[in-house]
Amino acid sequence: MPSILKWMRRFGTGRILGLLLLLSLLALRVLDPGFVEALRLKSIDIYQLMHPRAERQDLVAIVDIDEQSLRALGQWPWPRTIMAEMVAKIVEGGGTVIGFDVLFPEPDRSSPEVAAETFQGLDDATREKLRHLPSNDIIFANAIRASAVVLGRSGYRVSGSVPTAQAGIQTGIATLGPDPRLFLVEFPHLLQNLAVLDEAAQGHGMFSVSPDRDGVVRRLPVVAVAGGTIVPSLSLEMLRVATGSETVLVKTDPSGVRSVRVGAFEIPTDGKGRVWVHYSSPNLGRYISAIDLLRDRVPAGALAGKMVLIGTSAAGLLDLKVTPIHPALPGVELHAQLLESALTGSTLSRPSYTAFIELVLAALMSVMLIAKAPKVNAGTLFALGGATAAVTLGVSWYLFAGLDLLIDYTFPLVASFLVYAVLVCTNYVTVSADRYRIRSAFSQYLSPELVEQLAQSPEKLTLGGEQRELTVLFSDVRGFTAISELYKDDPNGLTALINRLFTPLTRDIIKRRGTIDKYMGDAIMAFWNAPLTDPNHEVNACEAAFAMLDSLKALNEQRQREVGDNQPVSPLRVGIGLNTGLCVVGNFGSDLHFNYSVLGDTVNLASRLEGLTKLYGVPIVVGEKTARAVRSRFAVLEVDHLQVRGKRELERIFTIVGHADVLGDPDFVELVERNGDMLAAYRNCDWPQALELNFLCRELGKKFGLDDYYELYVQRIRHRANTSVSSS
């Protein structure tokens, strides 16, 4: 606890609180509660108001069932003959594709056959004539069939008398990636047109919208799910019919929907298949009153070459929507705005990765303030924060206005401002670094002599290092992944096993004047000749390696005795790499925390040698310098040579077969000679000679446990020989 308090005083209470606040804010952004989303959406609204999309009057027109038309033709719904006439007038005026933002779910009540059944006082002859006249729905269907018409559909989420969604006539939907239905907006209920009308149309699209929580329509679904089937929106279906495409391609990734492609148009979407509409200012020039169309009061060319939507702006028909640019925009204009955005390639996009960018930006801005807080005064810190905020706003604005990309600037700015407020209010104070003096902190990885020396002279615990020749050891448990699997339901048992293994191995190292550098999962790193000088560091390191193997053998035998002979246990095995060379040794880390450790290529090679023990099938692999230093005390045998960074010549590597008593063994003496001959033949590509010598070495090496090593060379020789034959 005192050390923690010292660290807190040094680091600064304000900085700690700032970091905690930052982490809390980042977690809050990941959760993305309603008020955070609302702030983000309002910032997007501001951008929309400041920079609406440029108006285009040559792409889309709206035939408006407005108040004037309702006064002239009566209340809605109108007879289908009028709708058929409207379709004909639009086609005559040069409209390319017609989309209905209205629904025709019931038969026309003004059809002749309906009049024949409902009108009182008709004579039988008149009634019979009416029955044989074509229905208004048939007349409307014929007009639809003769034109490029897309009929609308309406999705509902409310239950009641509305029938469960049935997809009916379908547009071809192709997908690329995970199933889009996992992400799309879903409507359990779907209201469609009369079958006779739907069958006549070239396309069918949903005109339902999904406002955000505040009721504002910022995004329109271009594809949705109804009755488990993917259905396109009205605007997307009009685009498909206009381009003559047969299918719509929905592209997804694991985070959701990415885009929708129809013809040559690729429309970016959010993860739920919704398009961020880049609204232009409300434009009455795109509206044509329905009564003006029917009475031929439309200027020539007003519809030529345009996609035409039929909808209503009448307040009584309840199709007015709240948008970022207008509090009561006719719903039909939303589809017109989306069509124009798609046709001009100006739809807004907010890819899934933008949230991560905003998190990183908030973290970077806040961390910069936290890092600078102790070094500058409040005014300078405020200026720094202001400059960063200005850059953030500028980049965000450029991405919106120039690239149609939505980046939320509010979260990074608000997060960094709150962190700044904490930093200023708590008046950061920088304190001097306290040196660690706790003996137990070092006893875990240093020899007892060093612990006592450091306890008496704590000033040595400062950053810095010196270059010294060391012998470095790496040890790693073989097959640790498989062992971990055996303990996947018993993590405490795995921990106990590792501790049980490391205890004797650590004791073997420290007993032979080694210094434990660190434990890395199932691995141990140690070194000799620092901090206390050890003139026999190579020999002591090798002695420790053999002691570790002996301790491991004893541990495996003890584990077997504990469970009995009838239940075999998986023996623990380790690989040990040793290397000698110049290293930088000292206290490395920061002013707040450091470790006594070593750095250098010697360390890297020692780690590499440990990894090679598995390849060569031997428990110990040592570098050339180590082997030369101990060859009079241990039985060393060359196994290969390696290319080492920084050296032009190859580095010879060795294994240690045994102690000094093996040196005089005639078999070992002959093995050293024959092994050298085999390696020479192998390196000279004399494959028959190398193979013959390998078999001889294999017989000599059996008593030294070298079967796997020579089997490796058999495979190498045969492979190289076959390769040579093939290439020739």
Automatic annotation (TrEMBL):
Residue stretches making up the Guanylate cyclase domain: 471-610
Any one GO BP annotation for this protein: intracellular signal transduction
Superkingdom, taxonomy of origin: Bacteria
Keyword Transmembrane helix: yes
Listed name of the protein: CHASE2 domain-containing protein
Alphabetized Pfam families for the sequence: CHASE2 (PF05226), Guanylate_cyc (PF00211)
Provenance organism: Microvirga makkahensis
Gene3D superfamilies: Nucleotide cyclase (3.30.70.1230)
Keywords, sorted A to Z: Membrane, Transmembrane, Transmembrane helix
SMART domains (UniProt xref): CHASE2 (SM01080), CYCc (SM00044)
Residue stretches spanning the membrane: 353-371, 378-400, 406-429
